[in-house]
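Morning F.,

Quick status update on the modeling queue. The single chain you submitted on Monday has been processed. Sequence for confirmation:
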Amino acid sequence: MRLIVAAAVLLFAAPALAQAPATDATAPPADTTAPVPMAVTQAPTNPPMTGPRMLIATSMGDITVQLDSEHAPQSVANVLRYVKMKHYDNTVFYRVVKGFVIQMGSWDAKGIGHGVKPVKVPLEADNGLHNLRSTLALGRAEEPDSASAEFYINLSDNPGLDHKAEDAGNTTGYAVFGQVVAGMEVVDAISQVPVGDGGPMPGQWPLSPILVKKVTLLK
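Structure tokens below.
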């Protein structure tokens, strides 16, 4: 239920260019064969998402989400179950990591958790959907099928959160189940708020509460 991800960025300094040696007339001609270019890896994209939409009404504005009940049927059904229970109403975005994710689900402005009623949700991380900017995915504990009400919105492309290609047992990654189709400017504004201690994830709690007033299913 807590999403814990460590990211490392390595910066390499470009080596200084060496001075070209003087031309030796007796030297054999240089190999002028053009090097074979390395294959360019195409950035991942998501297929069109099909399913209902939901509205997340926050104190900073509205966010409209297209759910994907075709590629992530059980993840969507799980979230909609909590929507119908009004579980998300009067909670907050309790995790903000600039350039990474914002997360909501089960905490109120006082840092008190709302009780969840979990059911086993099979991990759907291997569903063809990627953790790209503006997508939503279920948070979970270490166990693959441990998702409950928590979900996050990606602020950037986060391939490290995707299902690993070599994982035949479907135990890695986080299941994408929707995408923001309106209100991404609200998501970006939330990502810029000052954070500190006070919530379930130290250093990531917005110092001024960002209230989730209501989450409703759109028809």
